[in-house]
Write a structure and sequence with these properties.
By secondary structure, the protein is an alpha/beta fold. It has two domains: 248 residues, Rossmann fold (3-Layer(aba) Sandwich), CATH 3.40.50; 66 residues, no CATH class. It contains seven helices and 13 strands. Helix 4 runs antiparallel to helix 5 and helix 6 crosses helix 7. InterPro entries: Caspase-like_dom_sf, Caspase_cys_AS, Caspase_his_AS, Pept_C14, Pept_C14_caspase, Pept_C14_p10, Pept_C14_p20, Pept_C14A. GO terms for molecular function: cysteine-type endopeptidase activity. Belongs to the peptidase C14A family. This is Caspase-3.
Amino acid sequence: MVNFYQGTSADTTPYDVLPSNSSREPTAPVAAIKFDKDAPYYDMTGDKFLIILNQHSFEDTKHFKHRPSPRNGTYKDEGRLRQVFHLLGFITFVFRNLKYKDIINCLTSIASLDHSRTSCICITILTHGDKGGKVFAADQPYKLSEVMDIFGKQATLINKPKLFFVQACRGGNMDSGHTVNLSTTCDSRLGAMTIYQSSETTCHYSIFEELMMVMEQEEAKTAAPSFNISNLLNLIKAWKNRWNAEDSDASLSQNKSFLTVPTHADTLVLCSTVEDFLSFRDGSGSWMIQALCNTIENNHQNENLLDMIIQMNRTVAYDKVTVLCKLKEMNKKKQMPETRFTLTKQLKF
């Protein structure tokens, strides 16, 4: 077992779980993952890693206004994640109740490995949190962006999906939701608008083409326009011609052996709630992690990740509500997970 961190207790020892559906030994060589920029799906045939940062207990330090409460139910989330991602062929490492410096050291050690044969890496953070992208280590808050930067700088993870699942509050607000009448029907097509439609085809114009059509019509109707529309139209046409020429030059000068990729490409961040709001958990685990694991387990063979996240969103949004809380003001509250991503391909486990 690769030991990334020499801990003093079982809670700081990583677990290396070899997937049972893998036909190879941990040390068997795997071909380096080749990148095809035109492929519609990420290549998931290489090694896949799940890293779980599970924070159940917290210390009473100067970095917290009050000592954060234990996160009861979080081990149910950990167990479910390990079970489902084991099924997907992920090698799993679990780190429990680490302090901030240990988290950074562990993740830096993993990110610094040669990931030429890695297809995907998923970091799951189970902890308390606060607004501004803060998540809690055992001894202090830190920024989620610090974790993302560690893996974003790794050269052998470029063009490979880096997933961040964050089960944590993002503030103290609570959402009572909106009540809708399900017996009322609404035809959404009434709000649809088509720029131009004939009996055979529907044409959608670019913003510049649409703008020029409208302005040419206005110029024909206006005898004395308050500004020179012709000059503006000529300017827009000149811009279009210049951009077309630049695009043509760029395509000619592109070296087929190299591709410049944005620094923040191929990343997905799934948060259990929207900014400023609470997320919920009970003795059975957290709403988002449990719903996510159930959705992936039942649909991973046919659905891609983004479609499964939408299904998970629907489960949490429609089926979950707080009940029987000790504080009355926390009853009948809702939760809405939030995802942002820069994926350049579909991801199918």
